[in-house]
């Protein structure tokens, strides 16, 4: 593996609340080599968004504690002075958020907002920045960019706005783009266009961290996959390895409970019992154990990410024996599709 | 067990028939022009729903699928056309005459958070339709509510809690219990699982399946997720700009889409590649975006984005016509029979 | 645009017509209120009353009386006061207007500057000690009644400390703009008194708006762009928060110019519109009341129209709606 661009080590994010400390990200480590697309998947409360906000130090709430190391090109971002951190944001690491409808300031034109980003990091004239904005808008596929650059956000459709947000993110040629559910608010045909745009950007050399809940999106675009649950990594590995031979019971559940557009149709879907763990009530041991059909005594102990047999890059955090995973997956799938009573959510 | 196994006594009879339903919204003229414009949310939709089946309605945002759902249960007045439920024309009924019909058809909403009164207990929310439709005395209502909670997988301990104390999936269960309270024949579900996490979505979809088996329910299931619609539906109507462009059995539709829009929609879904033999669909990336329902293109509504559009498509609006194989397509040059 | 302006103008006329009718009816159709009796003075004999009625046209049918009054007010512009015969209404209003405008414009500048500074500072410092402190100052300002505060200010500057600290404070009253220095000196304490009340309200409102804006997605985007905290606060959060503030400002400004600064004017002896209305009300001097009320309505409507235009300048979303 080449020297990673981003190397996150033992990242912890906790919130002080009236009822005590809530841990949203619990010792997360991962790395992104230059030029790679890392897909981060998980359900709500898995800590996938919070961890990426923490990487860019975008959590402004004073009641949040962030610890660990976030090494970007060897520098620890968490230890950087505020003004140096500002120079990293937008210039070296850009971020795109989920909802394009609210991501742009409503009172300025799209072009103004792109130019603002350029002028925050480079000494260029207003005119030159404006010209760059037109170029960028045209690059992200907005037709008639020269006149659309003067439009206000509300004059754009959702897909166009997300393109504009991406144009802002690309304006300083960042080495890393973090995209938090960039297509979730969009229609499927527009989603396909935006995913193509991300691929193009990646082909030009930027690494991408794509946060999503959609296994299909990850399967289509990621080089590597990180599955998160309860603020921890459940499984991590090259896309093919994770999708063709998932090892963690939570990943099985995620893959099996999605109704597909192809393949056999089942009357009942395999499910994961219960509800996603809330950051306030993380168990001591494996975070997934309370919902896992294969839990046993060892699960009271916290499993670490470890490689399976003969697969150095494909790691998972589970106490199950390493070699019978495929067979175990099959039994849980059939069991959970049939049983009605097991679906009912745990009374909270 | 497949969808086709299910039988109900009245299965196959037409329970709901919509004929040329339109819903137009006049737009307020702005201060600068006096020209009045119309938003054609639903523009001439005809369909039938047979007892015991699930009809899926799928389309992208703004295609009019939710408005159509509201038209079907008369939650909104139609601009034109008629809706027959159980043999009775309900499109012209007064509010009073509609009252005895209401218990037979219920709506389940997308956002369980917004559709449940936050100041009322879960038990009272489910009891409300029973009280409105004079189900019986207080004890009978209480018994029925407890029964409904059991049916949807909630416990008696949940009766006295407020909506905010539930998770998203549990709130949707309350919404479903409320819809079931009056013993409906038809449930129109408008994006009932799109706000839920994947694992919870599967649980709620299973609940829909179980309830259909148990109570011989008929569903109109509205969603934008093509995987979800395929999972639940016997037949599927694909909507675009307020019209149905294709209506077919689920298997045929996904195997061989006949309308170019259906084809493009299916090809845009990012499929999970899990190493199984399924060959990926040929990708057709549509250019541009859905036109505004205020300024509809002439002729075929899809022609501005259609990769196969020809001259005729701009001149003549294709009608939804049945083909030899039993499906219906609104296209001059369908891709399949 | 022309269509918009015409519509605004028509609705303004309608509002002013409705108000004038209302005022007229309140005074003439209220049972037990006989303007003639007031004009004629106490214990006037029936003959005098009848004569007064005739000479003021009070014996004509009501619609005629209304039209006559409007004609005198708007067409001939020679409507006279009932109380001080011979003194005309229009010149009185024309004389009082610059006083009120001086007071309100000056105070508005002070309270907007102070309100925006306090509100933005409090929002930026939320969670620290300065935030509740600034807001406390705001609450104190809001809860001090203008007439009491004005009296205290007068007491301090004109009596208690007039010999020492405030010897430079001129006696209460109004000096025209012909002497700008004296004008500002005379207006200083009235401005501060009036502004204190509104600065508190605006600071609180703006703080809420800015705090909400700082939690918006677009602020997160701005931060991810690597902008400085100051730029995020001023160019993004504050800029968007000003939109609702401006519409409120228009309403308050219109009402104050229309006479709502009455208490401040009375306390500081400023012969403005508020004072004029106040005196007319005390004497039930209908022609003057009618004049000032229509004048007030005109300013409120005008302020509303200006707010609409300003709103569109501030918020591009309102331009095409």
Automatic annotation (TrEMBL), chain A:
Cytoplasm among keywords: no
Pfam family, one: ABC_tran
Any GO molecular function: ATP binding
Membrane topology: Peripheral membrane protein
Localization annotation: Cell membrane
InterPro entries on file: AAA+_ATPase, ABC_Ni/Peptide_Import, ABC_transporter-like_ATP-bd, ABC_transporter-like_CS, Oligopep_ABC_C, P-loop_NTPase
Keyword tRNA processing: no
Top-level taxonomic group: Bacteria
Annotated keywords: ATP-binding, Cell membrane, Membrane, Nucleotide-binding, Transport
NCBIfam families: oligo_HPY
Protein name per its UniProtKB record: ABC transporter ATP-binding protein
UniProtKB/TrEMBL annotation, chain C:
Record keywords, A-Z: Cell membrane, Membrane, Transmembrane, Transmembrane helix, Transport
TM stretches of this protein: 12-30, 101-125, 132-150, 183-203, 240-268, 288-311
Superkingdom: Bacteria
Subcellular locations according to the entry: Cell membrane
Topology term for the membrane: Multi-pass membrane protein
Main location: membrane
Residue span(s) of domain ABC transmembrane type-1: 97-311
InterPro entries the UniProt entry points to: BPD_transp_1_N (IPR045621), MetI-like (IPR000515), MetI-like_sf (IPR035906)
Family as reported in the entry's similarity comment: Belongs to the binding-protein-dependent transport system permease family.
Name of this protein: ABC transporter permease
